[in-house]
């Protein structure tokens, strides 16, 4: 029986790549976008793969509830929450406005946890919840200090996910993964990044499939452990 995946934030880039990668491996994939009408690449992928498109804005509890209603009765082997933003390009705590830091923390840290909690009952036993984080969220590895706002948002996601695992997952036979995709040539990563989308998502899919024994793990796309 084919496995099922719900991939949040799949209109382009890594999310689109993940949807296509898992569908290409025989999974039944549900992929979301904030505005599917403005996601032609996702529509094209759905026309040639086993991908169903749904709508969600993870910042909106009402939108998350609507997604839950639209997928009622569906259960998943994988919930992969990819949606995220970079935030202000200056990346400075001195320059950021209250609205900008609130938006960054909501989208990158709080909203993924809220969505994971909403869909936790829909995960099959032995399934996986994956959060797209970054090596930049590692407090232990922060020796350069650049991109401080983005780093802070991903560190917050990592911390909240630890609480989610401890408080919500409990004794259920589920795996929680915090995944670093590498420095990828996407709209966020830029043209000077080190790897292509296909290499990243292929590695991420391998890591998801290889780590199904429960627990929580902070890993990169090659399966290397990252210190918290």
Give the class from helix and strand content and strand pairing: alpha/beta
Helix content range: 25-40%
* Strand order in the sheet with the most strands: 3-2-1-4-5-6-7
DSSP E strands, number: 7
The backbone outline, from C-alpha atoms, is: globular
> Topology as H/E string?
EHEHEHEHEHEHE
Structural topology:
Layout: E1 4-8, H1 13-24, E2 28-33, H2 40-48, E3 51-55, H3 61-70, E4 76-81, H4 98-119, E5 123-132, H5 148-169, E6 175-180, H6 197-210, E7 215-220
Parallel strand pairs: 1-2, 1-4, 2-3, 4-5, 5-6, 6-7
Describe the 3D structure.
The protein is α/β, with parallel strands linked by helices. 39% of the residues lie in helices and 19% in strands. The protein contains six helices and seven strands; from the N terminus they run βαβαβαβαβαβαβ. Strands 3-2-1-4-5-6-7 form a seven-stranded parallel beta sheet, with helices on both faces.
Brief overview:
Helices cover 39% and strands 19% of the residues. The chain has 228 residues and is of the alpha/beta class. It has a seven-stranded parallel β-sheet, sandwiched between helices.
């Amino acid at each position: 029986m084919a496995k099922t995946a719900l991939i949040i934030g799949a209109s382009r880039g890594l999310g689109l790549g993940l949807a296509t990668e898992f569908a290409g491996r025989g999974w039944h994939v549900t992929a979301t976008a904030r505005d599917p009408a403005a996601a032609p690449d996702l529509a094209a992928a759905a026309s040639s793969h086993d991908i169903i498109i749904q709508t969600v804005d993870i910042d909106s509890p009402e939108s998350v509830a609507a997604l839950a209603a639209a997928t009622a009765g569906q259960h998943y082997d994988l919930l992969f929450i990819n949606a995220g933003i970079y935030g202000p390009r200056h990346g400075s705590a001195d320059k950021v406005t209250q609205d900008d830091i609130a938006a960054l923390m909501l989208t990158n840290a709080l909203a993924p946890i809220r969505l994971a909690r909403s869909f936790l009952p829909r995960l099959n036993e032995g399934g996986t919840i994956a959060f797209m984080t970054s090596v930049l969220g590692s407090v232990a590895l922060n020796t350069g200090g650049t991109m401080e706002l983005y780093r802070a948002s991903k560190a917050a996601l990592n911390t909240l996910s630890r609480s989610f695992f401890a408080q919500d997952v409990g004794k259920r036979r589920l795996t929680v993964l915090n995944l670093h995709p590498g420095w990828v040539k996407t709209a966020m990563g830029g043209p000077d990044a080190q790897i292509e989308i296909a290499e990243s998502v292929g590695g991420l899919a391998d890591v998801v499939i290889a780590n199904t024994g429960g627990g929580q793990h902070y890993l990169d796309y090659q399966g290397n452990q990252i210190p918290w």
